[in-house]
Amino acid sequence: MQFFQKLGSLVTRLWKERNYNEEDFPDVASRGLSELPPDQHISLWDVTKWGLTAEQLPFQIDLAAKFGQPPLTVYSGRDFRIEVLFWVEGTPAIHQHGFSGAFHVLHGSSLQSLWGFETTEQLATRLALGRVSLKKAELLRKGDSRPILAGNQMIHSTFHLDRPSLTVVVRTLGEANKQPQYTYLPPTIAYDPFGIVPSVERRTQLLRMLLISGKRAEYNEIVRHILGTEDAYSVFQFLLSTFGMMEDEDERHNLLLAARLKHPKLIEALRPALLQTERRKKIIQIRARVSNSDLQFFLALLGNLPERPTILSLIQQRYPSRDPIIAIVTWVRELSELGLLGVRFSEPWLYMLQCLLIKRSEREIQEAFRDRFATHQTPNLEAGLSELSSGLQDSWLLQPVFRN
């Protein structure tokens, strides 16, 4: 494609001036995307049509489409390539890269979050325990470009808000000293999803087969033996892959107890990470059933951000004329009315949500409820409001909006 030939030639010239130094490549790629912004020269349809009709494509990487839906290589240069990543589902995990460069939003919009990780214990080359913490979040729109820094200099997630979203990536082929390329599970885990151990992978598939086939007794029998004999990384993979397939809380609890006998530190860190992973999957499933873009945006915030100030700030940024708290209450009401939350939020529930979000005191909430619902019989008002307040703040869906 002519535009990418031009961009590739520009990046080649700029990088040659830097003696092909990989440390300089984020600057080189960023400058190339700045001088030739893809969104001003090509469109979604231009790239799609070219990919489908070109007589010959550049050599295609990642044919399994593990990163991109799909990824399309559009230029191959000396120690770098340019690719267009199509996204129809906005679900990339928090990760770091084993390469450097820059990316540009060609079509759609994204929620990018930047994270830090403080290691407390390195259990294996592929697995570390620590603290995953949010550093910054921002909305990226068509035309925005950002550098990609290799290794743990840049831990991020880019959740794609529109279907499809397209990202142009100018990147090195890979930097050996920036491996492994960790993925992060908030709030406590870093692991290498690419360092596959064949025996561990096959055993994980066998365990999933037992659960899918309804062979829970057989699964429970063998998995306890495995959890008590295998290494930390293997146990982590087994639990990561199968924990969410079990609905019975007693089974889950017993499973973690069995693994904790040999790996107490791992299980202490893994349990909250598994619960957060499951929570995020539930939100993504709800989001897939919603067509309203406002509700999709709200669910993206709840599924990707852990704290109230950032959520309120991004709502204000996207909807500058709306009160963020009123917007949240409105969106919860709409999700409830669509039957997507498993329970119908009544007017008192929604009003309590609003009171909590604006940080009214217990006494202020009681007085507000007496005024607003004066005709209701409320003999145990104080106890009832306390229970309602606790229930909302402990809600699996709304946890982040109450965390500072």
Summarize the structure.
The protein has 404 residues and is an alpha+beta fold. The chain contains 14 helices and eleven strands. The protein starts with a helix and ends in an 11-residue tail after the last helix.
Number-wise, the strands total 11
Order of helices and strands: HHHEEEEEEEEEEEHHHHHHHHHHH
What level of helicity do the residues show?
40-55%
Q: How many individual helices? A: 14
Q: Largest beta sheet: what is the strand line-up?
A: 3-8-5-6-11-10
Shape: globular
Our measurement of the CA-to-CA distance between the termini, rounded to an integer number of angstroms, reads: 48 Å
Classify the secondary structure makeup into a structural class: alpha+beta
Radius of gyration, in Å, reads 24 Å
Mean pLDDT across the residues is 93
The biggest sheet amounts to: 6 strands, antiparallel, barrel
Which stretches are low in confidence, meaning pLDDT under 50 for 5 or more residues running?
none
Multimeric organization: single chain
Portion in beta strands: 15-25%
